[in-house]
Specification:
Mean pLDDT: 84
Strand content: 25-35%
Oligomer: single chain
Structural class: alpha+beta
Number of strands: 5
Largest sheet: 5 strands, antiparallel
Number of helices: 4
Distance between the termini: 18 Å
Shape: elongated
Order of helices and strands: HHHHEEEEE
Length: 130
């Protein structure tokens, strides 16, 4: 796996695991110096909610702006979530999502696949080849 693909996969996993603090701490080594890595649990939870809403309701190719306001010494986060396509994989509805985030001088830009779970939540994963 290339370093770029590994980083994108790690970032996608971090977004989907944000509500679980121990899982988030595990990924801290890989996401240090990124917007995702700089987020508090509240900020991450807000992004996780926006990702779910965008995947459920967003039209392919339509940028959905997302912001989290500054709080205390924490700088604001600005970004866009853009659904890029859909397909079915292993019986699950999946959507590709492009994520662009900016906080101060940090920028994250990545694209990955999310598949809808039986409980209605979206989870990032690699799709089957073919």
């Amino acid at each position: 796996m290339s370093p770029g693909l590994f980083l994108r996969s790690t970032l996608l996993c971090a977004v989907t695991l944000v509500p679980a603090a121990p899982a988030f701490a595990y990924f801290d080594t890989f996401i240090h110096g990124t917007v995702i890595g700089s987020m508090s649990q509240k900020e991450s939870a807000a992004l996780f909610k926006a990702v779910g809403k965008t995947l459920n309701e967003g039209a392919d190719g339509a940028e959905v702006p997302w912001t989290y306001p500054a709080s205390g010494k924490r700088k604001p986060i600005e970004g866009n979530l853009t659904p890029m396509g859909a397909k079915t994989d292993k019986g699950q509805s999946c959507r590709q999502l492009k994520v662009q985030l900016k906080r101060s001088d940090l920028e994250d830009n990545w694209t990955g696949w999310f598949c809808k779970q039986s409980d209605g939540h979206w989870r990032s994963r690699q799709l089957s080849e073919g």
